[in-house]
Amino acid sequence: MPRNPEPAYKAKPGTILDVDRAFYTKVQSAGRESVEKFVLPIRSGRAWTVPKGHVCRISTPEGPQVGDLNLWNLHNPRERFWASRTRQLQNAHVSTFDRLWSNLPFLRPMVTIIRDDLANYGVDEVGGRVHDLLGTRCDPYVAKMLTGEDFDYHCHSNLVRAVLPHGLTEFDVHDVLNVFQVTGLNQDDRYYMNPCPAKPGDCFEFFAEMDLLCALSTCPGGDLSAWSFEQNSAEEGEKVDMVDTCRPLGVEVFKISDDSVLEGWIPPEAMKYKNLHGVSLPTFQRESK
What we know:
Blueprint: H1 21-29, E1 32-40, E2 45-50, E3 55-60, E4 67-73, E5 76-80, H2 83-89, E6 99-101, E7 109-116, E8 129-132, H3 140-147, H4 155-163, E9 177-185, E10 191-194, E11 202-208, E12 212-218, E13 232-233, E14 239-240, E15 249-256
Antiparallel strand pairs: 1-15, 2-12, 3-11, 3-15, 4-5, 4-9, 4-12, 6-7, 7-11, 8-9, 9-10, 13-14
């Protein structure tokens, strides 16, 4: 078997996996105007909307910090980000020109990534990469299982609180994109996390292919340099409090100023599978007398 097998899903020319890089490069460099801007405090969550054809930026204004991102179709929250299929169609760690895909039966790009200030991180000395789809959000249930303690500010809980005002519930929170997070699989095929490499002002931008509801959590593990379900110790034996590694994240939504930039762009349609999974529906038959 080759050391580097061919990917299972290839972007054949002319297919939806074959991204129009020239178009998205033009979008990224086009003039824009800010329509919403806020800073997300540490260990918190917030939801916001992004109209289709707009650009959303997530940034690290004060330095390294991991963020957990969820996406929904604004008009139909049953359609939401599908991390595992995105991992197959794109990569286990995403970057510029990758897309984040929605779940079945919709299966279409929700966003296209157009800027990644950490793209040059590449692959580190232990195989780690950034913007993680291998893992998922931290949650109070695993924490309770491992430590016996209750904690209300894991990413899952932050996202739950964020979406409640939008009519969604805990059941709508789903597997995330871990923005700015470095992860990989070790030699034993076990998931690991390394400290976030982001610097002050680094950002990650995506183009909305549909009207979106987005939710983001500032991970309680901060930059993950001291991550543990229990308190870590520094080499000197000094206790390291994870909260000291936490920083805010910035979010900004932009409208493209020149409408001509988007000429020819067509929002992707839901996949048109027309069959019924092999099921034959019964038809009414009048009983003979």
